[in-house]
Amino acid sequence: MISFCLLFLWIPITSADPHSLKYLYTAVSGDTDFPEFMVVGLLDDQQFVHFGSNTKTLVNDAEWMNKTEKYYRELYTEPLINQYEGFKNLITFAKKQFNQTQSKGVHTIQNLYGCEWNDETELQDYFHHYGYDGEDFISLDMKTVRWITSVQQADTIKQKWDDNSKDLHYLKWYFTKECIDTLKKYVNFASSVLKKIVPPSVSLLQKTPSSPVTCHATGFYPSGVMVSWQKDGQEQHEDVLHGEILPNGDGTFQKSAHLTIDSEKWENNNYTCVVEHKENIIAIRLNQSVIKTNSVKPLETVPIIIGVGVVAVILLVSFIIARFIMWNRKSTASDDGSNPSMTQQNQMQLEVSLSLIKQERSREKRTFIEG
Predict the structure, then answer these.
(1) Residue 329, CB half-sphere, CA atoms under 13 Å: how many?
(2) How far is CA 289 from CA 204, 212, 233, 306, 335, in A?
(3) In the chain, where does DSSP find H-type helix?
(4) Pairing assessment for the beta strands 201-205 and 291-292 based on DSSP bridges
(5) Band of residue 156 on the pLDDT scale cut at 50, 70, 90
(6) Which is the most buried residue in 59, 205, 285, 336, by most CB within 10 A?
(7) Lowest-pLDDT range, 8-17, 22-31, 152-161, 193-202?
(8) What is the Cα gyration radius of the chain?
(9) How confident is the model over 222-265, as pLDDT tens digits?
């Protein structure tokens, strides 16, 4: 199964824990081994279907989709092939607006859209966003049903799309009716999968003695998790870099938090990796004997698993990552304007995001240690 990562990712903030249906479209130009056009569908941040221009085939990635497979393929395969051409035109337009028509670098257009529904409160939300080279480009304001630009280069297409009243009426109907109805139907089909809880496996990793120590949680479901470092029972923010939540190839997720301090400092203080997921807290005290490195095999240790009630007394957790996303990306641009490297921080993210797609991700364990 092909797994997908987001170059840009936007997910609406809500007070509850809603179900979500999202579709991510990615068009790529330039010298790359990735397909020119890819689509992935996610239900509650789990990939359930994907399409690629290299095969022009819609592929099921979830067993519950067997209930709708024939209908889904017949309904969506042909439109996706047509949209392939539309996205190629859109990326050409964007390159022209950014004066990158002669660029040989890799450029991307991404479209993330979908809806959310809380089955307890019945609250709904909708989103429809485009990004170019990892930055916001243009998005649909669901209240006014008008397009909002994030950069001046999108002004021309905003005017064109705002003038298309037929499409705007369709989008309003799709999000408030069709998307929500489909989400409810899929939640029903996948109910047994969505209700499962798989606790994380937690490890402390370090490439070299001078590298940051990584608290790495993997193999958990659902995606809502908090990974933090504590010093003497207090959450540590200084010298800590939080990674994003990423999908594994088996429907589970992973997340890391990197602690950058001298070994003398952590040996003389009580530093603890704390992972909170659903009803469990897993805490591993930082000690040389429990760190997995490239050269030294750690002693066998058993992480402390603490019930939520006990944690409230002995662990101070500042915040819980539930259903939100904040992204703060640093980009390094090449001479021709392409973005060869991008980093993302503080992402829940679906918590979905959403780096170009790595087709080999499904066969990797993606441990922190590299050979």
Answers:
(1) 23
(2) 10, 16, 21, 21, 46
(3) 69-97, 155-162, 165-173, 180-189, 191-194, 263-267, 308-314
(4) parallel
(5) very high
(6) 205
(7) 8-17
(8) 22
(9) 888 999 999 888 898 888 999 888 888 777 889 999 999 887 77
Tell me 198's DSSP state.
Answer: B
DSSP 289: G
Which string of DSSP letters, residue by residue, matches 55-102?
TTEEEE-SGGGGGTHHHHHHHHHHHHHHHHHHHHHHHHHHHHHTT-TT
The alpha carbon of residue 321 and the mean position of all alpha carbons in its chain are separated, in whole angstroms, by 14
- Measure the CA–CA gap between 138 and 152, rounded to whole angstroms: 10
Kindly indicate the confidence band of residue 39, based on its pLDDT and cuts at 50, 70 and 90. very high
Structure tokens belonging to residue 225: 């998790």
The CB density around residue 313, as the number of other CB atoms within 10 Å, is 8
Give domain limits for the chain.
19-193+337-363, 201-314
Element (H, E) at 115: strand 107-117
Residue 172's CB is within 10 A of a number of other CB atoms, namely: 14
Fold type of domain 19-193+337-363: 3.30.500
Q: Which residue carries 């060869």 as its tokens?
A: 340
275 exposed, middle or buried (CB, 10 Å; 0-12, 13-18, 19+)?
buried
> Can you tell me which residue has the tokens 């997340």?
255
Q: How many helices (H) and strands (E) would you count in the chain?
A: 7, 21
Tokens of 160: 């064109």
Q: Which CATH superfamily is domain 201-314 in?
A: Immunoglobulins (2.60.40.10)
Q: What is the largest CA-CA distance in the chain?
A: 67
List Cα–Cα distances, 152 to 143, 157, 194, in angstroms. 22, 10, 41
Instruction: Name the 3-class secondary structure at 311.
Output: helix
Distances (CA, A) of 199 to 149, 207, 268, 314: 41, 25, 31, 21
Closest CA to 244 of 331, 342, 349: 349
CA 199/CA 253 separation, integer angstroms: 10
Compute the residue count for the chain: 371
